[in-house]
Every structure is written in C-alpha cells, then in structure tokens.
Amino acid sequence: MNTPSAMVVGIIGAGEVGSQLARAAIQLGYEVVIANSRKPETLQGLIEELGPSARAATAAEAAAEGDFVVIAVPLQLVNNMPVDELAGKVVLDTNNYMIWRDGHYAEIDEGRKTVYELRQEHLPRSKVVQAFTHIQAPRITTAGQRAGAPRRLALPVSSNYPEAVQLVSWLYDQLGFDAVNNSPLSEAWRSAPGQPAWSALQHQTRAELEDNLTKARPLPPR
Ligand SMILES: NC(=O)c1ccc[n+]([C@@H]2O[C@H](COP(=O)([O-])OP(=O)(O)OC[C@H]3O[C@@H](n4cnc5c(N)ncnc54)[C@H](OP(=O)(O)O)[C@@H]3O)[C@@H](O)[C@H]2O)c1
Questions:
Q1: Strands 127-130 and 154-159, bridge-based pairing
Q2: Span 4-145+162-177: which CATH code?
Q3: Pocket-testing residue among 78, 94, 136, 172, ligand 1, by greatest number of atoms within 8 A of Cβ
Q4: What single DSSP character describes residue 24?
Q5: What is the pTM of this model?
Q6: Whether the CB of 140 sits within 6 Å of ligand 1
Q7: What is the pLDDT of residues 41-79, one digit of tens each?
C-alpha cells in the first residue's frame, strides 16, 4: 500500500463525521480535499483550523482529487453524489440509516438490501465500503488505543471488495481500533441500528463485536 503522505483523501460532507475524519486523515499524513453541499468558501473556518494540508472544494472536485473518498452524508442524499468522479475509487460510506432523518426505504425496511448495497448500486463503478459507522465522530481521534490493548475498541467494516476492506482495516488500526470484517455488503444488516452490535457500539472489543454480529436477527419490517 502507498504511504499516506503521498495520498489525497477526498471527503464529501463536512459535518460531524467529515470534519473529524479530515482531522484524523491529516494526523496520519494525508492531504484532504473536503466539500459540503454549499460553496467551498463556506468551509473557510474549517480549512483554517485544518491547516495547509486541507483545502475546500466542490463534491465533484473532492471525488476527482481523492485517491480514495469518504462520503459522510446522510442516506437521504444517496442519489446526489458525483457518480462519474467516484468511478474506480474506494468509497468509504459512514452512513447509518435513521428513519427519523432519512425517511423510509422499503428495500432496507423489508430486509432486501442494506444501506451500503443501495450506495453500491448508486455507485456501480466504485468500491463502496462501510466505515466509521460505529463510533461517535469526536471519538475517532480520541478513543484509539495501541494494538493489543485489552479493551481496544473494534469497528465493523463491510465491502464487496477485499482491497477496500484492507484499506479501512489499515486506517482503523492506524487510528487505534480493531477491524471486524463483516463482508460482503449484504451482511451489513448485522450491525445496523437496532441490532446488538449497534447497541454496544461505544464499548465493543473485537471478540464482543464478532459475538454481537452472530447474535443479529432480522428486524420486523418498519
Ligand atoms: N455524527 C456522528 O457521530 C456519526 C457517527 C458515525 C456515523 N454517522 C453517520 O454519518 C453520516 C453523516 O453524519 P454527520 O453527523 O457527519 O452529519 P452532519 O453533521 O449533518 O453533516 C452532513 C454533511 O453533509 C453535507 N452534505 C449534504 N448534502 C451534501 C451533498 N449533496 N454534497 C456534499 N455534501 C453534502 C452537509 O453539508 P451542508 O452543511 O452544506 O448541508 C454536511 O456537511 C450520517 O449518515 C450519520 O448517521 C454519524
């Protein structure tokens, strides 16, 4: 894998998760190109905080410039991403499906698709991977522990592409978290809101997360 200092992370979404992943990426030596839904000028304060390794752009520019790209935008905007610019790239999806915010998606409610499968369908030429869904944004840069620490937090990762799982697992480890591979994307329902792996999200070790994933049961249609 390339060294991070040679790489650019595109981040679409500059809210709680996007801005915190920008801080984390810069700590790891990446350059960051970050976008929100408005003009890049609206991110001036964040860019001043992040420093010279970051710049603001449009979502299409962030997608085009990133060696890999984070989408930290709620599901309700699943059809509003720069599909062509994201083609061929690993795309980290931080989304959690929240009906109160996103509205109802029948495919998810009836257990026919996971939220990440929907994203993959929308981005058919990208390599979508569930990432950083099971940690509150501020803790991405504060909750990490050294490898082997007895209560090291574990986070799920899910993708149809092994190289995407490898990248996210490496990022987790660099930030102080264990990865539990819950691939492919069709398995990601096991960690969805309402499941044991979701309820325990702040505290799970690798063994506990693996156990919680096996305890998942289909939820009744909502
Ligand atoms: N908050 C957490 O601790 C946390 C943790 C893990 C996972 N998640 C999940 O991650 C996702 C993002 O959560 P969040 O808390 O970061 O949300 P948020 O704070 O509401 O931020 C959402 C960001 O998306 C941007 N955005 C909206 N539409 C866009 C578009 N079409 N193009 C580019 N940017 C767009 C918004 O820009 P504007 O400001 O211009 O509208 C905003 O910067 C959600 O699905 C959430 O469930 C959240």
A1: antiparallel
A2: 3.40.50.720
A3: 94
A4: H
A5: 0.96
A6: no
A7: 999 999 999 999 999 999 999 999 999 999 999 987 677
